[in-house]
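Lecture notes, continued. The same structure-token format from the folding unit now serves as the input rather than the output. Read the line below as a description of shape only.
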């Protein structure tokens, strides 16, 4: 990804175009991998989130902003809190800064897992009756693991950076799991798994947690909210909210999936995700393994392609991230029986 730099003058001028004139400070903010995010504070002390949408990844920001506007108004009409768009002019947008809450990159306790999962379940619930038309499909085949494997194969074949020889263990690990990669894609195609409106990026730092109660007060980063499968949303919660270490932890002994956090997620999610059908419940534990493998495949693909997609801070950053994902997959596989049992226990309630 282009690690773009911006002058303060440029940022102030964009803020000015959105009507924010007396800028006291503006600085990079958060740790998202995709957009360029800044927090601006004006002379009155009001904070804003200024973002430059990554148009290399999102080719149609208008379609994205149209989804965001429909989704946020619908959530608000039900009394929920959501992102508030104060200004948009492709590729820039300005959001109201959500106060009294924060995001965490690494989950801090199992109660946060319960509350975050419950916030994502409510988000899906709130959007279940969004009036037609269907939301724009912002990134087609985004979570399609079969497609992600094909992209990995293409990057391996091209091997533009000569990195393939150094990742044979990771390639073997992925190759051994190809067979199960198409399970959710096939379920969606047959209709056994229904299409729903989903967030598609439910990592823990995409939900704002109340400073005092830790409750998930607002789901943010709505760029990929579009038609999808609830399973991918639950799976990505398992990937990020059960992890004992950061997504880019180098010491793999510290990286594993925690059963008590998984249990808290299942409890928090199923408390409000009453809409799930039998096929979805049946694949809930599997979805954690699958999405984690898929994100591992994506990090490896980007590593082989020369780090053009995810923001990286050093040379092997994407490879380090890929390794944590594969270690998480292994850890979930080791606990497969217990995870399946936990899902059964709470689905029966
Ligand atoms: P990316 O797509 O790059 O991940 P995000 O939209 O997730 O970008 O924003 C990055 C970070 O900025 C979030 O993880 C969060 O910490 C912070 N953030 C984004 N929007 C808001 C908001 N409206 N209020 C407060 N913080 C926000
Ligand atoms: C990106 O935007 P961010 O940092 O919340 C990515 C997700 C990945 C995640 C891995 C649009 O999420 O799909 O799961 O990184 N978003 C996009 O950490 O590709
Ligand atoms: Mg984000």
């Amino acid at each position: 990804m282009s690690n773009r730099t911006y002058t303060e003058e440029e940022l102030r001028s964009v803020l000015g175009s959105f009507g924010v004139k007396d800028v006291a400070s503006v600085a990079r903010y958060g740790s998202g991998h995709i957009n360029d995010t800044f927090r601006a504070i004006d002379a009155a002390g009001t904070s804003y989130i200024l973002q430059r949408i990554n148009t290399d990844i999102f080719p149609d920001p208008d379609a994205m902003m149209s989804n965001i506007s429909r989704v946020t108004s619908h959530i608000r009409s039900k009394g929920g809190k959501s992102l508030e768009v104060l200004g948009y002019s492709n590729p820039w947008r300005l959001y109201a800064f959500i106060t009294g809450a924060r995001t965490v990159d690494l989950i801090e306790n199992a109660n946060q897992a319960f509350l975050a999962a419950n916030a994502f379940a409510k988000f899906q619930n709130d959007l279940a009756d969004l009036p037609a038309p269907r939301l724009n499909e912002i990134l087609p085949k985004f979570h399609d693991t079969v497609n992600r494997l094909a992209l990995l194969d293409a990057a391996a074949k091209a091997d533009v950076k000569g990195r393939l020889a150094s990742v044979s263990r990771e390639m073997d690990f992925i190759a051994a799991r190809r067979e199960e990669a198409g399970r959710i894609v096939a379920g969606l195609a047959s209709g056994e798994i229904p299409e729903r409106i989903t967030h598609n990026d439910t990592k823990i730092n995409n939900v704002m947690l109340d400073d005092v109660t830790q409750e998930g007060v607002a789901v943010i980063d709505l760029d990929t909210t579009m038609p999808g499968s609830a399973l991918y949303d639950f799976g990505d919660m398992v990937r990020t909210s059960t992890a004992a270490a950061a997504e880019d932890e180098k010491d793999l002994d510290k990286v594993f999936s925690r059963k008590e956090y998984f249990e808290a997620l299942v409890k928090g999610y199923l408390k409000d995700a009453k809409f799930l059908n039998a096929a979805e419940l049946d694949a809930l534990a599997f979805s954690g393994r699958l999405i984690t493998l898929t994100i591992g495949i994506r990090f490896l693909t980007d590593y082989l392609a020369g780090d053009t997609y995810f923001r990286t801070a050093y040379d092997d950053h994407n490879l380090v991230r890929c390794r944590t994902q594969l270690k998480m997959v292994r850890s979930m596989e080791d606990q497969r029986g217990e995870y399946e049992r936990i899902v059964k226990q709470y689905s029966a309630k």
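Point for the exam: The mean pLDDT is 97.
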